[in-house]
Amino acid sequence: MDKFSGNIADDVAKLRAEVNELRALVRQRQPLTTASQGWKMTDMAIPSVGPGEIQIGSNGGELFVATESGTQRLNQLNVPVATPPYPASFNSPATIGSNPTAQNYNDLRADVVNQLFNPLRDVINKLATAGVWAPPS
After folding, report:
1. Could you tell me the mean pLDDT of each successive run of 10 residues in the chain, 137 residues long?
2. How high is the pLDDT of residue 4?
3. Are residues 89 and 120 in the same domain?
């Protein structure tokens, strides 16, 4: 069935009336989010999400991301830890002119522990404290 009557003036008048009605409805509808003072989201039910899609929203006052494989709440984004210290330079010699000695080995081992092992443990523990992953066992 043809939507238009054939009278162009009547058709234009009807379309204008529909556009005005839709504009009025849009102006009355509450926005899903507001951003003039940062984003605000109203709590909603967590939806099902199809392949290749994500949805972010608020549920129970917490930010969430829903994906096809499940939902993740992002309340752990408040990272309550300090930045790990930057490792210092190695103290052991960069080159050895003769066969390595026990002292050369001990110096290199101390550098690896102090400048790599300990800072790496610090990063792992701080990220676990921040909730990025479970604490090491």
Report:
1. 75 92 89 72 90 90 87 65 80 90 93 90 84 76
2. 66
3. yes
Cα–Cα distance list, 13 to 3, 17, 59, 100 (Å): 13, 6, 44, 94
Within 10 angstroms of residue 31's Cβ, the number of other Cβ atoms is 9
Name every residue whose Cβ is closer than 8 Å to that of residue 44 and which is 6 or more positions away in sequence.
Answer: 57, 58, 59
Residue 106 has a pLDDT of 94
96 within 8 A of 104, measured Cβ to Cβ: yes
The number of folded domains in the chain is 3
Using alpha carbons only, how large is the chain's radius of gyration in Å? 31
Domain that holds residue 56: 39-77
Is 98 in the same domain as 66? no
Give SS3 for 58. Answer: strand
